[in-house]
Design brief:
By secondary structure, the chain is mainly alpha-helical. It folds into two domains: 119 residues, no CATH class; 196 residues, no CATH class. Helices cover 53% and strands 5% of the residues. It has a three-stranded antiparallel β-sheet. It has a two-stranded antiparallel sheet with strand order 1-2. Strand 6 and strand 7 form a beta hairpin. Helix 1 runs antiparallel to helix 2, helix 1 packs antiparallel against helix 9 and helix 10 packs across helix 11. The chain is elongated. This is BZIP domain-containing protein.
Amino acid sequence: MDDAELILRVSPTPSKLHLAEPDPLQQRRESGKVAQRNFRNRQAAKALELKQQHENLRSIVERIVLAQRDNDQTSLNHAIVEAGKAVGVEVGACSQSTIPDCPKDTHTSLDPRSSSGIHTSPSVLLDTARPGESVRRSHSGRLSPRLDYGLWLDPDRFLKIFEPPTDIRPYIGPGMYTVAGHIAWACLDYGHACLREAIMMIEMHDGMHRGDLGSSLPPGSAARRAFDLSLRHSKPLHDITYIMALVEARMEFRRLGYMQSDSSGADESTRQIMEERVSGELHSKGVKMDQWWSALEIEAHVRQRLGILEFSAFQTALCNQEATETQLMMPLAQTLAHRGVCFGDGPRWNAVHVMTLVT
């Protein structure tokens, strides 16, 4: 029965019915969806506002360029004042007394020794609107006469998430090359390949058996083995389309340093709800979390076995991407990659199995 349906329970008195208490996980899920929808609406509104500001600035800059080209001093003054208002800068009054006119019928000397030549050069026409600034600076700011200068607005920035998901935060940046980082990313890379194979197989069967992956994946395939080992133990993990979105969002963050916010795999509240459901189900089955280690806990075990000094040297070499130490690390990382089990907060490994590998 769907979680959203109300469950009716019959009391000892046949004429009385009682409604079950609302599922707190369902309430959190709905609250997360509403929050995410509101967040996206705010992002869309902000992107539209930035786009309008961008177009306004381009229009102002174009007017400045045209006015300067045509020696239209009045239009140039007005355009500079509008540009200052647009960027929040106090420009002050622009008049013929502060910005000299450029007569169309005379050729002004550009001789450096001629003061009139200096004051009538095109660069100064823009510079006098902001007294005290050099000519060089007038060509590098938002009031530059070139349309490809100074427009730094990026509406797409507000459609990206630059905060790493909590489950991969220890393995981002320098953490990518640590013992734990090598193990975690090797497992995610292997899981991504298996999930892609599983989705391709389902699509080949026209989407049949989506609710029961065991009946749609060949027993000998890597996708079937990975599903049986990593996902079958908990029902919330059976939605491989969502699991694939989670993995792809994390791989995107590793590659680019951000995630697209419109991806379902980038929604942290939804992932946390799934994690709680998995944790609750495993707890009801008697699974003890201290018997399942994360990549960081495996790293701590390796540190204990090697000793602080030897481990520190090994870890430093890994972080410096030294070839010898990286090659020594890869067999362990690849072996564990095929044995990772999803717990909703990232892969975990059976502690006994890890201790047999790292002695």
